[in-house]
Amino acid sequence: xxxxxxVRQAVLVGDEQVMADLVNGLLKEGTPxxxxxxxxLLAGMTEVGRRFREYEYFIPEVLVAAGAMKEAMQVLRPxxxxxxxxxxxxxxxxTVKGDLHDIGKNLVATMLEGAGFEVVDLGVDVSPEQLVxxxxxxxxxxxxxxxxxxxxxxxxxxxxxxxxxxxxxxPRIIVGGAPVTQEFADRIGADGYGRDAATGxxxxxxxxxx
Length: 210
Ligand code: B1M
Fold this sequence. Notes:
The protein has helices at 4-13, 16-28, 33-53, 59-80, 103-114, 128-137, 153-166, 182-188, 197-209; strands spanning 89-95, 117-121, 142-146, 172-176, 192-194. Helix 1 runs antiparallel to helix 4 (59-80) and helix 4 packs parallel to helix 5. The mean pLDDT is 91. Helices cover 58% and strands 12% of the residues. A 5-stranded parallel beta sheet has the order 2-1-3-4-5, sandwiched between helices. CO-5-methoxybenzimidazolylcobamide binds at residues 42, 45, 48-49, 52-53, 59, 62-63, 66, 98-105, 107-108, 144-146, 148-151, 174-179, 194, 196-197, 200.
């Protein structure tokens, strides 16, 4: 029988091999997917962050932990999203220029899918011009931007400015990521802010219902 603590530990040691079995085991026993995400995977990743900050972990350890998290998400994703529902809006999601962090962005993408969006994932290190081009190539109702570094927050400012200047009507814009706050979102003219992936999806849904 697997436990949420086993999942947390597997993230900490970056054990990709056991992830699918652990997550499938918990799902079979009836553990809700959102608890596996928050109390297993995210709890592990938070501890990885603390160890990285305090020089107990270095980049290789962080990368294997990220690999284990990704492996688990392959199994968990279909259980977090509702199947077969017609998308109620389209969201383009990206990590801003200069920033390569994608774990949080991928979670937000999953939650947006779960909230009924069709999600176009533009990846990481995405420039304002790429965002504009993506919005011009198909109808996009919402742009979701992630930044994990204080040094890439200015790229978020640029992205919001360029999207609002070039697109009429501009899509709704929601921002998030560890260094991003509601106050920053308001200051740069974003329409919404998500503290975490679940809140982000709720705010996104509200913005697109207005
Ligand atoms: Co980096 N890194 N990293 N890193 N990394 C951080 C962010 C850092 C806080 C670590 C630290 O020093 N304590 C620090 C930033 C410091 C700062 O700017 N204040 C840092 C640094 C410095 C760096 C490098 C510069 C290190 C170096 O090379 N010297 C470098 C930069 C590379 C670059 O981007 N150009 C770097 C590299 C890396 C790796 C490649 C090794 C790896 C990324 C792997 C990957 O993403 N594929 C990595 C990782 C894994 C981390 C930590 C440990 C974990 C990040 C993570 O995935 N967290 C991180 C420390 C930490 O955060 N504790 C750290 C789990 C994820 C689920 O959380 O992304 O915050 P997060 O997403 C959350 C919320 O923020 C929110 O929802 C999610 C939860 O529900 N959210 C949104 C995110 N986006 C949202 C968008 C929304 C709404 C909500 O709406 C659109």
